[in-house]
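Item description
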Amino acid sequence: MNSLIRSLLSVSLAFGCCCIVSAQDQSGGSIPKVLQITREYTKPGKSGAVHEKAESAFVQAMARAKWPTNYIGMTSLTGKQRALFLTRYESFEAWEKDNAAVAKNASLASSIDRAGFNDGDLLDSLDQAVFYYRESMSLRPMSDISKMRYLDVMVFKIRGGKGREWEELVKLAKEGYGKGDPQAHWGTFEMVYGGEAGTYLVLTARKSLAEVDRGFSMEKEIMSAIGEANGKKMDELFASCVESLQTQLFAFNPSMSYPAEEWIKSDPDFWKPKAVTAMTAPKKPASEDVKAKQ
């Protein structure tokens, strides 16, 4: 098989898992239909503990309000320094209702606005996108990732008019990996708002990076299960329908996350880190307060 299938194999070996679970039904077995992702690029020198301190204000605001919608925060280990925040919903209607409820809660909305003001000073840019779960393109997806620590993010951009070829490519990959590696599992999401059409995410959560080593060690078994004929076909499909592919690695960050109680109880040492003091706006001198009241 040529380099294209080996490139696809390397990507697929990273396919190892998950559908992100980050809202109300953390302990159940449901897969989120709608995944909302906020991406924050930090300025040089403004990541790490500085950004965690700012993000803790959002977490504390949600906790005070006992808000039912949870989210996962993570920071980049590759590429430009940035953080991702993933929130799952069962439907677009549920997303709409959550946004409306936040807007109606004056205390929470005000706290989020203040936190956003402080956080904004640290950011170079921010964007948001919404993705929809594609069951037919997923293999043995997981719903509970509370024990996971890392996330592989693979972004496939499919050429216009090549959707059916992409579906055929994924079908062959599912068949090969389903037979060649009994532990293979992944979840695929299609971008529906916030970016270019034809963009797909393959999200892979891991307990440790030793799973990456294991994935590459399974190359012979997976190649054998795919077979020479299907491997050649996958080469052709990949070259024809995939315009670009990016792969990045992130680490879950509990200080930036608002996890469900089930997650905290399951692994309190990780999901309930020591409190980080939230950033607050500098106080005005007493003289200014007096003048303001006059």
